C-alpha cells in the first residue's frame, strides 16, 4: 500500500495484459496469491453469465489449489473469502478487487483497498483500449499503478506510475 501526497493510504492497481494464458488461469493464480496474503477478494465482472462461467471454472480447479468462493446473490455473500459479483460494492468487504472483462474501477475505490487487479485480453483491441483508458484515469487521479505483460511468455513489469 502506498501513501498519497496528503498522507492517506492508497492501494495499488496492477494491470495484467493477457496474451498467453486465458483469464481463468491467470485469475486462479492471482486469487491464490491474494488468499495467501489473507485478503478477501471480489472478482468484479460486467456480465452475470460470464461470472457464472468463471464460478464453474473455479470449482473445477485442482483439489490442492481449492479457492473458497461464491457467486453473489447467495445467503452467505458476506462470509465468502472470494465473491464473484458485478456490483461495485461487494458484500464480503474485500481488501482486493479483481476486475475482469472490462468491469470498471473508480479511483476512490482504490484508496480503500490493498490491491486492485485489472485483467484484460491482449487479443481484444476493445479490451486493450478500455484498459488504457482505465490506466489514464486512475493514474491521473493519483493511484499508484503497475503494468504487467506476459508477451515474452512470462510476467514482466513494463511500466509503473
Account of the protein in words:
With 161 residues, this protein is an alpha/beta fold. It has a single domain, classed as 3-Layer(aba) Sandwich (Rossmann fold), CATH 3.40.50.10110. The chain is globular, with a radius of gyration of 15 Å. The two termini are 14 Å apart. 31% of the residues are buried. The N terminus is likely disordered.
List keywords for this structure.
161 residues; single chain; Rossmann fold; alpha/beta; two-stranded antiparallel ribbon; disordered N terminus; eight-stranded mixed β-sheet; 4 helices
Fraction in helix = 25-40%
Query: In sequence order, what are the helices and strands, one letter per element?
Result: EEEHEHEEEHEHEE
* Tally of individual helices: 4
CATH overall fold name: Rossmann fold
Q: Superfamily at the CATH H level? A: DNA polymerase III subunit chi
Q: Report on the biggest sheet.
A: 8 strands, mixed
**Secondary structure: number of strands:** 10
How large is the radius of gyration? 15 Å
Q: Strands of the biggest beta sheet: in what spatial order?
A: 5-6-4-7-8-3-9-10
The proportion of strand residues reads 25-35%
Q: Structural class of the helix and strand makeup?
A: alpha/beta
> How confident overall, as mean pLDDT?
92
Could you say which overall geometry the principal axes of the C-alpha atoms support?
A: globular
- CATH architecture descriptor text: 3-Layer(aba) Sandwich
CATH class: Alpha Beta
Report how far the terminal alpha carbons are from each other. Answer: 14 Å
Sequence stretches where pLDDT stays below 50 over 5 or more residues:
1-9
Number of domains: 1
Amino acid at each position: 500500500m502506498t501513501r498519497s501526497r496528503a498522507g492517506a493510504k492508497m492501494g495499488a492497481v496492477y494491470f495484467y495484459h493477457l496474451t498467453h494464458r486465458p483469464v481463468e488461469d491467470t485469475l486462479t493464480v492471482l486469487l491464490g496469491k491474494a488468499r495467501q496474503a489473507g485478503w478477501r477478494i471480489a472478482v468484479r465482472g460486467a456480465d452475470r453469465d460470464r461470472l457464472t462461467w468463471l464460478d464453474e471454472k473455479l470449482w473445477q480447479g485442482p483439489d490442492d489449489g481449492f479457492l473458497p468462493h461464491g457467486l453473489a446473490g447467495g445467503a452467505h455473500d458476506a462470509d465468502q473469502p472470494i465473491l464473484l459479483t458485478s456490483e461495485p460494492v461487494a458484500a464480503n468487504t474485500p481488501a482486493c478487487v479483481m476486475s475482469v472483462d472490462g468491469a470498471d474501477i473508480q479511483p476512490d475505490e482504490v484508496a480503500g483497498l490493498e490491491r486492485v487487479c485489472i485483467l484484460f485480453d491482449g487479443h481484444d483491441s476493445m479490451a486493450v483500449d478500455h484498459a488504457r483508458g482505465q490506466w489514464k484515469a486512475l493514474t491521473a487521479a493519483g493511484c499508484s499503478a503497475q503494468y504487467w505483460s506476459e508477451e515474452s511468455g512470462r510476467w514482466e513489469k513494463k511500466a509503473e506510475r
